[in-house]
Amino acid sequence: LGTGAVMLLALVGCAASPVSPGSSSSVASGGDVAQVEVDATWLDDGRMIGIITHGSSTCVPVVEDAALQDNGTFAVILAEAEEDSVCTTDMVARVTLVEALPGMDPATDLEVTVAGDRYTGDTELDAVQGLDPSNTASEYAPSAGWIDEDDSFVIMTWGSSTCVPVVDSTAVTAPAEVTVTFDDPPTDQVCTMDMVPRALITSASDLDEDDSVTAVLVGDDFDGVRVPIYGST
After folding, report:
1. Cα torsion 142, 149, 42, 119: sign
2. Quick one: which of 4, 74, 1 has its CA closest to 233?
3. The pTM is what?
4. pLDDT tens, residue by residue, 51-72
5. What are the angstrom distances between the C-alpha of 186 and each of 157, 169, 211, 225?
6. Of 147, 139, 141, 159, residue with least CA distance to 225
7. Which residues are within 8 A (CB) of 176 and not within 5 positions of it... i.e. 6 or more apart?
C-alpha cells in the first residue's frame, strides 16, 4: 500500500471565516515584488477555492480581498498572519480558503492571481465537471481536490476551529481509492461551538488511476465517509 505523509494541517478561520469576495483592499506598495509559485483547487462543490502558497506551517496567510476582474481573472489578495504570531522557519505548502463568487462556473477554467506582502503569483484553476454550488445537500460535507504538489490533495472539513482533525496516515487502498485515517481526539477535548472550514494537505503515491479517485475518511468523527477528489493527479 502506498503511504503518503501529511504535509500540512492548516486551520482556516481560527480568527474568522473566509471573507466573501468583493471588499475594497489593496496590496501594500513599495519594495521588490517576488514572483512565487501558487496553486489552487476547487472545494466544497464549487463554493470554495483552496489557494496554495509556501511558507511557515504556523503562519498561514488569510484572505484580505478577492474579486473577479474585468478580464475574467479571479484576483486574491492575501494578508500575513497576525503580527504577534510566532512563525516556524519551515517551508511547506499551506492552504488558504476563499469563497467563490456567485455565478462562478467550476466547469470552466479560471485564471487566478495571488498577491501578498511583496509577492505575487498566478495559476490556472482547471475546470471540474459536475460540481454544483447551489446543491444544498452537499453543504457542510467534507470535500477534496488535487493540487500540483507531488501526489497531494487538499481535504476540507467543517467543524470547531479549536478541534481540528489531525491526519495519522494516508494510504492507497484500491486502484482509485485512498484511505485517510485521522487521530481520535482526546476524550477530555473541549471544543468551541463555531462551525468553520478547516483545510489540510496530504499525499498518496502509486495510485493506478489519475482521476475519479475517492478518499475514504476514517477516525475522529468520520466513519468511512467517501469523498470524491476533484480533478486529477
Report:
1. positive
2. 4
3. 0.86
4. 999 999 999 999 999 999 999 9
5. 19, 18, 35, 21
6. 141
7. 207, 208, 209, 212, 213, 214
